[in-house]
Design goal:
Strand 6 and strand 7 form a beta hairpin. Helix 8 packs antiparallel against helix 11 and helix 14 packs across helix 16. It is globular and about 70 Å long. It is an alpha+beta fold.
Length: 541
């Protein structure tokens, strides 16, 4: 990311805002190896360029139609070689990358070293306006193709060199020993020549090199993906394809599942959690995942960026009865947050259930006192923005507001502020148009504490949606990134996290499990550690 040094021991990450989906499903159909799976979904925020997708719905598609140098194991999240034959370095700055022969895109074009280098150059260049461009910021020449100010002075990254069809080299600006582990992220996917030669056509029907290919897409309705029989990777699709059905309400999707009109719902709505075990039995999945839900703040709005604002934000945190909300609304599929990471990290990885301490404990008297000392609520009212299209957020937002209102003795102190669609909600956030707190979901890319902090809170980080900035936090992150010893790096990141706590940069709400339900037609259904279905493993009975 711009202005940051990059970890030698850990990989950079990109924000993934959690979302749901849109309207009407159509389950049933053939079984066996050619059976089609219908799954709930939501339209992605942006066209499906790999380096311009940083939210879950688009990410699901990219994970089906692309394979990169590395792939994250669907059970453990560990980075394993996929297209990479080997990645070698003697100094953690200069890397030699050899790719396996025989990989092709679904249009028949061969995957070569140039497929990666061209894709990465496109992703990094300022003129292409890619959300994930900062991933390439540690490759030599990034400052020339993506300057903080002014126009680019180069067209390509000087640190990328094609050797031949199966080999290329990468030069970083500093030592970064685990840089190869970042290469499973979709931003680093290869792109075919068709992407550049017929860009509009490619956007309308993306061409990738994964186990599925896009058959058709009607925005607001359905994306049909079909098994690509020419795929020669080790993780061939065990079904005939996936129909991603857009739903505007996850409750409707769940009803379709129960009625037999939909095969898979990968985000069981809160309103259905009381009944899901009785409805689905062992076809209900509830597993730990690296997901944290928070309330973010618009620091570009002066009303929320005052000298005493931390007291107001901490007061709001202490006005929220997390225990009651997770028990009653979420039926224990959420756990009250006690830090800004996730329990899946474990203590050695940086999770600390004492770090937030009193700032995350429900205490109405202290909450009221802090808000008053901080100057009161900006404008006299908190409006919590959220997307209403999934049906998953209204209940908990109302519950949070009820808790705040009861604390302050004012039933209008906090209200929900719904946006009709996820795309509109994310669009307003991206354009820095929020006027108050807004729901923010973080879904890890891999289990490292750096992944929960730097992308969200470092100055100008691509997923720092609220534009929070703190020099001490940045300094500690830079120091942690320069540390080659993992334990020392984790400790330093935790010091940075304490700055987040003291300023209450965002209010941590709860850790989230991955949840899903599926029809009797399916078997071998599982969620990966990032709470996304492992679509290619699903079998249709």
């Amino acid at each position: 990311m711009r202005g940051a040094t990059h970890a030698k021991w850990a990989a950079c990450a990109v924000a993934v805002a959690l979302a749901g989906a849109g309207c009407g499903g159509d389950g049933g159909g053939a079984g066996g190896a050619d059976g089609i799976v219908s799954s709930s979904w939501g339209d992605p925020q942006n066209p499906l360029e790999p380096a311009n997708t940083n939210e879950v719905q688009g990410g699901k598609v990219l994970d089906m139609i692309f394979r990169g140098l590395k792939r994250y194991d669907p059970k453990t999240g560990a980075a394993t070689d996929m297209i990479a034959e080997k990645i070698e370095t003697t100094d953690s700055v200069n890397f030699k990358i050899a790719i396996k022969d025989g990989w092709t895109f679904s249009n028949g074009e061969k995957v070569t070293a140039e497929s990666f280098v061209n894709a990465w150059n496109y992703a990094a260049h300022l003129k292409n306006n890619q959300r994930n461009a900062y991933f390439f910021g540690y490759i030599e020449g990034y400052d020339q193709v993506h300057p903080d100010e002014g126009q680019p002075t180069a067209q390509t990254l000087s640190g990328l060199k094609v050797v031949d069809d199966l080999n290329f080299t990468v030069k970083l600006t500093q030592k970064f020993s685990t840089w190869p582990d970042t290469l499973g992220y979709a931003a680093f996917a290869p792109l075919p020549k068709a992407f550049f030669d017929s860009h509009d056509s490619w956007l309308a029907k993306p061409i990738g090199n994964g186990p599925y290919s896009v058959d058709s897409y009607a925005k607001g309705s359905k994306m049909a993906l079909r098994r690509w029989d020419g795929y020669n990777g080790p993780d061939k699709a065990q079904n005939g394809g996936i129909d991603l059905i857009v739903y505007t309400d996850n409750n409707t999707a769940y009803t379709s599942l129960i009625a037999g009109d939909l095969d898979l719902v990968d985000d069981v709505p809160a309103a259905q959690l009381r009944n899901v075990q009785a409805d689905l039995g062992d076809r209900y999945i509830n597993t730990p995942a690296g997901i944290l839900q928070t309330l973010a703040f618009p620091y570009y709005d002066k009303a929320w960026n005052t000298p005493d604002g931390a007291k107001v934000r901490t007061g709001l945190s202490r006005a929220i009865d997390r225990e009651q909300i997770t028990d009653t609304i979420f039926q224990k599929t959420r756990t009250p947050a006690k830090d800004w990471t996730s329990p899946v990290l474990g203590e050695d990885g940086g999770f600390d259930d004492t770090l937030c301490g009193a700032a995350c404990e429900y205490d109405p008297a202290e909450a009221k006192k802090l808000i008053k000392e901080g100057g009161g609520l900006p404008g006299g009212q908190v409006k919590i923005s959220y997307n209403s299209d999934t049906g998953s957020h209204k209940d908990w937002v109302d519950a949070v507001c009820n808790s705040i209102n009861n604390t302050l003795g004012n039933n209008k102190a906090c209200v929900g502020n719904p946006y009709g669609t996820f795309a509109d909600f994310r669009g307003q956030i991206t354009e820095s148009k929020m006027s108050g707190p807004f729901r923010a979901g973080w879904q890890m890319d891999y289990p490292l504490i750096q992944n929960f902090l730097q992308p969200l809170y470092y100055t100008n980080a691509s997923s720092n949606d609220g534009k929070w900035s703190n020099k001490e936090f940045d300094r500690l992150v830079d120091r942690a990134n320069a540390e080659t010893d993992t334990a020392k790096a984790v400790d330093t990141f935790k010091q940075a996290e304490e700055v987040v706590r003291d300023e209450m940069a965002a209010i941590p709400l709860w850790y989230q499990n991955g949840s899903a339900g599926y029809s009797e037609r399916l078997s071998h259904v599982a969620l990966n550690p990032f709470s996304v279905p492992v679509y290619e493993e699903i079998k249709v009975n």
